[in-house]
Design brief:
CATH architecture of the largest domain: Orthogonal Bundle
CATH superfamily of the largest domain: Hypothetical protein af1432
CATH class of the largest domain: Mainly Alpha
Number of strands: 10
Keywords: Coiled coil, Phosphoprotein
GO biological process, one term: phosphorelay signal transduction system
Shape: elongated
Organism: Pseudoalteromonas ulvae
InterPro entries: CheY-like_superfamily, Cyclic_di-GMP/3'3'-cGAMP_PDE, HD/PDEase_dom, HD_GYP_dom, Sig_transdc_resp-reg_receiver
Protein name: Two-component system response regulator
Strand content: 5-15%
Radius of gyration: 27 Å
């Protein structure tokens, strides 16, 4: 907690000794308000915003259930905790039904436990407020993007289109809670990508490849969902990195700089860990830089103890860095990138996952919405160009959305031979296209 901001907590109990004890515990880190009269407490809620209300259950005239029910009506965003030594189950059920309590603490309480519950409740309120603020910012940004659509540069247009497609997919998702969760994650991913000056589409490509690889490895549906969300946010912590490290190839970083880079995984995990239901996602982020043989970051796990989502993300993430040039400053072909990964089998990466990823690249499932980077000898008629393909001089030879034919592939191969140049082509694989490499 800082001196500039202290969350506000209101305590309601008819025993002054209890109120004094609670005030002593929390007055250093929180702004506290105590009431031994429930009616006065309810009146106070009409004039002052609080983050948390902790009320005793058994009080004369007005019960804790009534106080928390009034809190829910007056300040629905405030969290509500029931505090009581009274073991009547009917009263507890009443408090849950009427007051929508966030937690229940019995008397006498354990100081460490009550501090933990209060911190969790306050952080939940703060996170909800931040999410609401981010949602408003995103709505404003989309409105501005629509107004300036004709003059925006290509990068912003691609991000807008990607966000619109993502929102369309989310609108068809089953379940209101799952839909909201995906919207929040994609919103955070988009804002984080803009903050660190990179393409949101890169995160989406890696996330979709991770999901395909996870499906090939027969992960359960829930694991695939967590993997996709984690991969979408795998560089979330980079928003705190020094600007000079954002564009510096990893092969040219010092050991100290690499440590700073890898620590971003922990920062991203800590951000996501605030949401209790996303611990699986934060674990994937936190351990993505562990090494299969140990001595990775944060060097807490190795081998099969590393979450499988983290092991999958490490392979797909670093493959993408090799072909994009983020590792060495020079773009590698898919085959050279795979060789670089295989050279570290069972040292940095899980050999089984590298083998599965290699098999996936040789026979990409048709109809998937994931982009893959291929060389010309891997191209097949019917594949769709996902990103503009450029000549060695930077001029565009094929635009996004072009469907490949034998003639187009032949023209690309002839250019490579004549100019000693290798195209790296990002493609989408529609239905009914045979992608198996001979």
């Amino acid at each position: 907690m800082t001196d500039k901001f202290k969350p506000k907590i209101m305590f309601v109990d008819d025993e002054p000794e209890v109120l004094m004890a609670l005030k002593r515990i929390f007055r250093r880190d929180y702004e506290t308000f105590t009431f031994d009269d429930p009616a006065q407490a309810i009146e106070f809620l009409n004039t002052t915003r609080v983050h948390l209300v902790i009320s005793d259950m058994r009080m004369p005239n007005i019960t804790g259930a009534k106080v928390l029910a009034a809190t829910k009506q007056i300040q629905p965003k405030a969290k509500r905790i029931l505090l009581s030594g009274y073991s009547d189950m009917d009263s507890t059920i009443e408090a849950i039904n009427q007051g929508g309590i966030h937690a229940y603490i019995t008397k006498p309480w354990d100081n460490d436990r009550i501090k933990e519950v209060v911190e969790d409740s306050v952080q939940a309120v703060i996170l909800e407020a931040k999410n609401e603020q981010l949602s408003k910012q995103l709505i404003q940004k989309n409105k501005a993007l629509e107004e300036l659509n004709q003059t925006l540069d290509k990068k912003v247009q691609e991000q807008t289109q990607s966000l619109r497609l993502s929102l369309q997919r989310l609108s068809t998702a089953a379940g209101k809670q799952r839909k909201l969760l995906h919207q929040i994650i994609e919103m955070i991913s988009l804002i984080a990508a803009e903050q660190r000056g990179s393409h949101y589409s890169d995160d989406v490509r890696i996330a979709k490849q991770c999901r395909l690889l996870g499906h090939k490895l027969k992960l359960e549906k829930s694991q695939l969902t967590y993997l996709y969300l984690a991969a979408s946010l795998h560089e979330l912590g980079k928003i705190a990195l020094p600007e000079e490290l954002l564009t510096k190839p990893e092969s040219k970083m010092s050991a100290e700089e690499l440590l700073i880079l890898h620590k971003q995984a922990n920062k991203g995990a800590d951000i996501i860990d605030i949401i209790p239901s996303l611990h699986e996602v934060s674990d994937i982020l936190r351990y993505q830089y562990e090494r299969y043989a140990g001595k990775g970051f944060p060097d807490l796990k190795q081998g099969e103890d590393i979450p499988i989502g983290s092991r999958i993300l490490a392979v797909v993430r670093d493959y993408d860095k090799y072909i994009s040039g983020y590792f060495t400053g020079k773009k590698l072909s898919p085959r050279d990138a795979l060789q670089a990964l295989k050279a570290q089998s069972n040292r940095i990466y899980d050999k089984k996952i590298i083998e599965a990823f290699t098999a996936l690249l040789k026979d990409i499932p048709s109809g998937s919405d994931a982009q893959f980077c291929l060389t010309t000898d891997m191209l097949k008629p019917g594949m769709i160009i996902a990103q503009d393909v450029k000549y060695a001089n930077g001029n565009i030879v094929l635009t996004q959305g072009t469907t490949l034919t034998d003639a187009i592939i032949g023209r690309l191969e002839q250019y490579e031979i004549k100019h000693d140049f290798a195209f790296l082509v990002f493609t989408l694989i529609p239905q009914q296209v045979d992608t198996a490499v001979d």
